[in-house]
Amino acid sequence: MAGPRPVVFSGPSGAGKSTLLKKLMKEYDSVFGFSVSHTTRNPRPGEVNGKDYHYVTREAMQKAIDKGEFIESAVFSGNMYGTSKAAVQAVQAKNLICILDIDMQGVRNIKKTDLNPIYVSIQPPSMAVLEKRLRDRKTETEESLQKRLHAAQVDMEFGKEPDIFDVLIINDHLDEAYGQLKEALSEEINMVKKASLSS
Ligand SMILES: Nc1ncnc2c1ncn2[C@@H]1O[C@H](COP(=O)(O)OP(=O)(O)OP(=O)(O)O)[C@@H](O)[C@H]1O
Ligand SMILES: Nc1nc2c(ncn2[C@@H]2O[C@H](COP(=O)(O)O)[C@@H](O)[C@H]2O)c(=O)[nH]1
């Protein structure tokens, strides 16, 4: 696929991926574009269909997967999630750096494609902090919270596996984590800025 190298964000639910990537997209709106995933989970208050996710039924999602419309898909905490080819192409057509926010199954599957992204692992400072963040976010039932915490334990181990991620950020203090993220992506950011000035 053409355009600048995409960036994959992964890490446990509640680690702060959305928080960090939204800051990045706000500061560099002409540099980054978000790959809007499909999901079968219900929208949270404030989430917008087509912006945060494409909210679909299981039947519609399975049909689209069977038709080969997805680069990757996974079941996370009982819901289906997936990155469509169209979502990535829509960002790349604008010559923006495509940001994907995906779980570790997605990372493993993207590794088998020719997307060639930069892999960024966002990790919480500890399980206790992660649990507090997820509880304070007030988006989960006790059941879905437990599923996410269980997945997080596996995810934190995955984050330590060698040769998977290019960048590891421990999101303890938000400003520090954001500074590290900008630093890690500075080369790509400057390349896209330069290209847009000369076009
Ligand atoms: N450094 C931080 N310090 C304190 N709170 C934070 C920090 N980063 C994020 N948060 C808060 O933690 C909660 C989880 O963050 P966020 O929703 O960005 O996580 P996520 O990794 O995108 O989760 P999910 O994978 O479930 O979408 C949010 O309420 C957010 O405001
Ligand atoms: N493999 C994929 N994982 C995805 C995708 N979109 C989001 N996600 C991951 O799901 C969990 C839960 O997200 P939430 O919005 O319900 O909290 C989180 O880890 C995301 O990174 C996708 O397209 N593919």
Automatic annotation (TrEMBL):
- Domain of life where this protein originates: Eukaryota
**Lineage of origin:** Eukaryota, Metazoa, Chordata, Craniata, Vertebrata
What is stated as this protein's family in its record?
Belongs to the guanylate kinase family.
Under the heading CDD domains, the entry gives: GMPK
The molecular function GO annotations come to: ATP binding; GMP kinase activity
The reactions it catalyses are: GMP + ATP = GDP + ADP
Give EC number(s), comma-separated: 2.7.4.8
From the UniProt record, report the name of the gene that encodes this protein.
guk1
Q: Where is the Guanylate kinase-like domain?
A: 4-186
PANTHER family hit by this protein: GUANYLATE KINASE (PTHR23117:SF23), GUANYLATE KINASE-RELATED (PTHR23117)
| Pfam families per UniProt | Guanylate_kin
Naming one, the record's GO cellular component terms include:
cytosol
* SMART domains reported in the protein's UniProt record: GuKc
Q: What class of enzyme is it?
A: transferase
Q: How does it assemble?
A: Monomer. Interacts with RD3.
Its localization reads:
Cytoplasm, Cytosol; Photoreceptor inner segment
Listed name of the protein: Guanylate kinase
Keyword set, alphabetical order? ATP-binding, Cytoplasm, Kinase, Nucleotide-binding, Transferase
